[in-house]
Amino acid sequence: MLDSKFLNAMNISLDLALEAREIIRGETGQEIPGVRVDKDTYDHATVTTVHIEDQNAQTIMGKPVGKYITIEAPVIKENNQQAHREVAEILAEQLKNLINLPMELNVLVIGLGNWNATPDALGPKVVDQCLVTRHLYNYAPQELQGGMRPVSALAPGVLGTTGIETAEIVRGVVEKTRPSLIIAIDSLAARSVDRIATTIQVADTGINPGSGIGNKRAGINQETMGVRVIAIGVPTVTHAAIIAQDAIEKYINSTGGQPGDASSAIKNVLEPFGSNLTVTPKEIDILIEDTAQIIAGAINMAMHPGISPEDYGYYLH
């Protein structure tokens, strides 16, 4: 069974708090002290909220103290627009509960990732479909309806294409526009291939761009930005090392052998890639489009409850 020893040996961190809890509970056989879990079930989704409540739990989980909401919805991978709308509504409700701001306050939406790399393009694609209204308050107030909030949005790119740390760009925008909240969207890495494009995590702790695939970037959180940050992420890749480990264990178990530590052998195989190879499905372009539409729809519903989705097209550029 995949365990923390293997993850540490391969230098793999888990983006999903739900997966981190599953592995630690599997090793200890009991709930983690300082961690509380709530679960709700809907027609097309299961919502699990992991509360990390103290510093001890933070150390064990490797996640900051805060709330991590995971929406598991395999229906996202199906061509079912009505089900996608229901998942968006569930996400919108979770966002509304976390936002908790007067309607006149400004919100900044940040689409993290590289628009030139499909598995990493989720953030920019969400921003493309977000209903931005901050400029209308200054230049076209007559176009506004009741129940709309000032929203601005930015896809800042990645260090490799801009030469600038993403956190530096975001911090500069925050200093100029002074939002009361940041919503950051990013692609994640999952432990399980089943969670690719079927799981949405919402966290009130901010985000570290690229952390799940070994890129240690400056964090986008309340400490670095001076404003609350809600992070929305969807797994779009998984680690080749994890797939290899799972395959080895299944083979050994099927032949009656005993599973062992395969980390050294896997490292050798992945050495040409610095032991850091990630894998994504061939249909990732379609999955990114669908998840981006769901997340953008949820953000629009949460930000602008006074207008219907049918009216979004009037405001989208």
From TrEMBL:
Q: Which HAMAP family does the record match to this protein? A: Germination_prot
Catalytic EC class: hydrolase
Entry PTM: Autoproteolytically processed. The inactive tetrameric zymogen termed p46 autoprocesses to a smaller form termed p41, which is active only during spore germination.
Q: Which UniProt keywords apply?
A: Hydrolase, Protease, Zymogen
The record's catalysed reaction(s) read:
Endopeptidase action with P4 Glu or Asp, P1 preferably Glu > Asp, P1' hydrophobic and P2' Ala
User: What biological function has been recorded for the protein in this entry?
Assistant: Initiates the rapid degradation of small, acid-soluble proteins during spore germination.
InterPro entries listed in its UniProt record: Pept_HybD-like_dom_sf, Peptidase_A25
Instruction: Choose any GO biological process term that the UniProt entry carries and state it.
Output: spore germination
Q: What is its EC number?
A: 3.4.24.78
Q: Which GO terms describe its molecular function?
A: metalloendopeptidase activity
Q: In which family does this protein belong, per the annotation?
A: Belongs to the peptidase A25 family.
Oligomer status and interactors = Homotetramer.
Name of the gene: gpr
This protein's source sits in the domain of life called: Bacteria
| Cross-referenced SUPFAM superfamilies | HybD-like
Chain positions listed as propeptide in the UniProt record: 1-15
Protein name (Swiss-Prot/TrEMBL):
Germination protease
> Span of the secretion signal?
none
